[in-house]
Design a protein that fits this description.
The chain has helices at 3-20, 23-30, 36-55, 63-88, 91-98, 101-112, 119-136, 145-168, 176-198, 207-234, 237-243, 246-257, 265-281, 287-292, 303-306. The protein is mostly helical. The chain is globular, with a radius of gyration of 19 Å.
């Protein structure tokens, strides 16, 4: 794999958190109010069922429980906590709370993947968190306790999901789309009875509500998560987690462009710091790294699935 391919994979994977940066705007402006479980279920289940119908392949053997665990961590629990945070916090503040994710992935990668922690990773975590703080934290920002706890819980859930996805890889012969469909379906089926029992279905939906659900389920889940899991298969776990910093950049940009929010010089500095953290955390080409990795054709098992423990995958 050349440095060009590494950069291409990083840029493509970054499209997923870029799309997710619009979640806060769509949730508050397009969806029915105060229905985080409905939003999470509609985002996950339809997209998962569509991908299952396309792939026509179910898990087998050990992958039944692995798909269930990943579906809960990456989709079910994460989606619910994400939407709770989105309903209780301004989009930027929710992103700030979630910026703990790379630090958690750093620790979990050392424990589970046996990857060596390097100083550049610690620096990237600090620079990224400070940058997001400058970017989104304003004097009038609301720090609702429920939203903060939900944001932290979502970051922890996704962090563990990323590391386990890297640890287990994908089973042979299973494509990215099918693998994504397993997880979205598990997460959606987990959320469905909870949603029906606690929130129920809305009496009516507006055209705007329907458009919001279609966007979150189609672009925000089906497309974005397929790109995301492809990236996890090709890039180091920590590099993927840092790409999540793209989300608050997009959330802030949409606030400026759509909601007529103002951007200060301090926020500009914060945006540059976030970009610097993302770039610092991306893999660098080296002989050792190139020797141990190679291109992963769509639909084949990634190298990480057969040889999960690669300290050399660290930058």
């Amino acid at each position: 794999m050349s440095s060009h391919n590494v950069a291409r994979d990083s840029l493509l994977t970054a499209l997923a958190p870029a799309v997710w940066g619009s979640t806060y705007l769509v949730t508050t402006e397009w969806l029915p109010p105060d229905r985080p479980l409905l939003a999470a279920t509609m985002r996950a289940l339809p997209a998962g069922l569509i991908l299952l119908a396309i792939g026509r392949k179910l898990p087998s053997g050990i992958w039944w429980w692995r798909a269930a665990v990943l579906g809960v961590l990456n989709i079910g629990a994460f989606f619910y906590l994400l939407f709770v945070a989105a309903y209780h916090l301004p989009g930027g503040v929710a992103s700030l709370v979630g910026s703990i994710q790379p630090t958690v992935v750093l620790v979990l990668s050392a424990v589970i993947l046996k990857e060596r922690t390097r100083s550049i990773h610690v620096v990237s975590c600090v620079v990224g968190a400070l940058g997001i703080g400058l970017l989104v934290l304003q004097p009038q920002a609301s720090l609702d306790a429920v939203g903060v706890l939900a944001g932290l819980g979502g970051a922890l859930s996704m962090s563990l999901g990323i590391v386990l996805s890297k640890r287990w890889g994908r089973p042979p012969g299973v494509t990215v789309l099918t693998f994504t469909g397993w997880q979205l379906t598990v997460g959606g089926l987990l959320l469905l009875p909870v949603m029906l029992g606690s929130e129920g279905l809305p009496a009516s939906l507006t055209g705007t509500n329907i458009a919001g659900f279609l966007y979150l389920g189609g672009i925000g889940a089906l497309v974005a998560y397929s790109i995301w899991f492809r990236g996890i298969g090709r890039l180091p776990a920590l590099a993927v987690s840092f790409l999540g910093f793209v989300s608050p950049l997009v959330a802030t940009a949409l606030g400026y462009l759509v909601l007529d929010q103002k951007l200060s010089i301090v926020q500009g500095v914060g945006a540059l710091a976030v970009l610097a953290a993302v770039v610092l955390a991306q893999p660098r080409r080296s002989r050792n790294w190139l020797r141990r990795t190679g291109p992963e054709p769509l639909g084949q098992e990634p190298v990480a699935a057969t040889r999960p423990h690669h300290p050399s995958l660290e930058r």
